[in-house]
Amino acid sequence: MAETITWDLALDIARRDLLDLWRSKMLLFFFILFPILLMSMFGYIYPPIPKSNPNTGTIGTAFPNLPVMLVKMDDGQTANLIAAQFIQISTQQGLFSVSETASYQAARNQLVEGNIKGIVIIPQGFSDALAAGQPATVQVTVDETNPTTASVVQSEISAVFNIIGSSISAQNINNLDGGRVSPTFIMQPISVTNIPLITGVSSSFQFLAPGFMALTVITGSLQGVATAISREKEQGTMDGLLVAPIPHRSIILGKVAAQTVRGLIQGFLILGLSMVLFGVQIYGSPIIMLIVMVLGTASFVGVGIIMTAIAPDQETAQMMTIILQFPMMFISGILFPIDQLPGWMQYIGKAMPLYYAADALRKVIILNASLAAITPDLLILIVYTFLTMTVAIPLFEKAMRR
Amino acid sequence: MTMQESGTVSSLSDQAIETHGLTKRFNNFTAVDHVDLSVRRGEIYGFLGPNGAGKTTAIRMLCTLLTPTSGTASVDGYDIVKQGNDVRKRIGLVSEKMIMYPRLTALENLMFFGRLYRIERNALRKKSEELLEMVKLTPFKDKLVGGFSSGMRQRVNVIRAILHDPYILFLDEPTTGLDPQSTRFVRDLVKELKQRGHTIVLTTHIMEEADELSDRVCIIDHGKIMAVDTPQALKGKYNTGSLLEVFLGLTGRELRDSANERISMRAPMGRM
């Protein structure tokens, strides 16, 4: 009996841990709040970006209705027409809210005060240049104090004038050619169209949600196990478990099971929220998702046990898990593509089981991958489980009866 | 009444507990130093000593919660290192820190810990309710123990340790921090448990308690045994009416302030 796991005892231990969470209403509140907060934060940091399409003249934006000012220094007919077109297109597509002013200095003051994000100047001689068959220039000043908005404003203004320019080109070609050749053939003989990986996916969040889910489940249970065991050691109840004739493995299994259930609850909350709030869709089987997440948790929870064995108290154990999970977030390819990291960091990232769990989960959720398709990922997770547990269990036994 | 719920026959040893050269060192601090103990079956064994004398460390070794550095010990004839599980089946522990979950009710706590001894659920419930009745907590059995007073908690803590009818019961300072009423109740409970056939190892700093309850007392200091005898005999030997004077005579009157680095660094909350 001593060498086998007694499942019913593990179940009792797990049930008690979950009851503890259920009875602590405040803990439960924050337990549920955490994934909601995480989801909302990242959901709005990575907002859905409507696709731009140069062929139909649509421009997508993540920052709608940015305030810009138009300074028209030319009063020619063409200049007026183009200014009107700029305002019309910007307003229609929700890119900018455009106001007009007569002097560049006045507009610049507004920009410096932070009231507007960019200035579009139609300089003197604009109409004359076009009338004379010469290319004309529009000048742009952007609020460079904020690089992100600056580059967005810059590129969106260019995009609007590209549309206006294209229609002028088309007119010019028609005038020269008499309508025999399509103007598009001359201006853009080759175009590029995008076939989406998955039809109907409008949100970049579709690709991020599985990673977040894996991250929450795995690090949640890692930290949970470390905290739960250290807490019991500290408050003395661990003595009650250790002084009973039960195998250590039952204690470990019970703790891990409870924390895995907690992790899964948070994971599925994240998935549910990303479906409701950000239109994420699930294409794969929930059963396979569950298998991936349970294996992902198992692969790493041993590290949590090792930490409790080493840490003298709950606070230290918690600190150790945070130290571990924080870099894991950044180098396991969940938030940022792993390819942009320096080589040695990529190796560390790929040495983390989180990388494989997130990869497998992404394939299942987005690509409807079968169990066979993610077998390599799962095998790696299983190997990790054995490796970490082989170290963790004897270490736990030693530490508990030090 | 049979004390062995597992049905195994007790070993031939006529001692409940026997240790030979039992030693525990933490780095260079020797907490228990070559201790030879023998606790007779059915007695209350008072285990006395100043703070840091090694009482708790010795008890934790006998409960298999600590591995000895050297020496041997057997509990009910089973070796504490090689036959840990057999030892665990036969002992109950009431430690300094109460072993209970504040967010479980009294009954739930008993049911949880009882299940660890594989007591069948219905029998366990019946037993728990009986014991709750014995310590007069039946009206509170469905209340969370987190809201209990120290006295109530200690009563739950004691019956938690005897759910499985352990042959040997370790009580580590069971009345510390309790009001006089609860202290009286716990002391009477200890006597009652002796009547029921449990062998009891009791540590306490209250000499009158040791005097009242113990069949024999063992005074330990700096990890070594200073004296073992009945309270009566010890008082006679030192020609005094109080066990406190015997104790101070043996262990000195100096305050015991020492800080062991290993303990304070690794386990700020208590001895591990």
Largest interface: A-B, 26 and 36 residues
Counting DSSP H or I runs of 4 or more residues, the number of helices of chain B is 10
Instruction: Examine the coordinates and then state which fold CATH places here, giving the name of the CATH topology of chain B.
Output: Rossmann fold
Q: What Rg of chain B is obtained from the alpha carbons, in whole angstroms?
A: 18 Å
Radius of gyration of chain A: 30 Å
* CATH homology group of chain B: P-loop containing nucleotide triphosphate hydrolases
Question: What is the CATH C level class of chain B, in words?
Answer: Alpha Beta
What structural class do helix, strand and pairing data of chain B support? alpha/beta
Structure description:
The complex is a heterodimer of chains A (402) and B (272). Chain A is built from 15 helices and four strands. Chain A has helices at residues 7-23, 25-45, 77-92, 104-112, 126-131, 147-177, 183-187, 205-235, 237-242, 248-278, 286-310, 314-331, 343-351, 353-367, 375-400; strands at 66-72, 96-101, 118-122, 139-142. Chain A has a four-stranded mixed beta sheet, sandwiched between helices. In chain A, helix 3 (77-92) links the parallel strand 1 and strand 2. In chain A, helix 8 packs across helix 14 (353-367), helix 11 (286-310) packs across helix 12 and helix 14 (353-367) runs antiparallel to helix 15. The longest helix of chain A has 31 residues, at 147-177. The radius of gyration of chain A is 30 Å and the shape is elongated. The two termini of chain A are 23 Å apart. Chain B has one domain (15-253): Rossmann fold. Chain B has a six-stranded mixed beta sheet with strand order 7-8-9-4-10-11, with helices on both faces. In chain B, strands 1, 2, 3, 5 and 6 form a five-stranded antiparallel beta sheet that branches. In chain B, strand 10 and strand 11 form a beta hairpin. The longest helix of chain B has 16 residues, at 180-195. Chains A and B meet through helix 1 and helix 9 of A and helix 2, strand 7 and helix 3 of B.
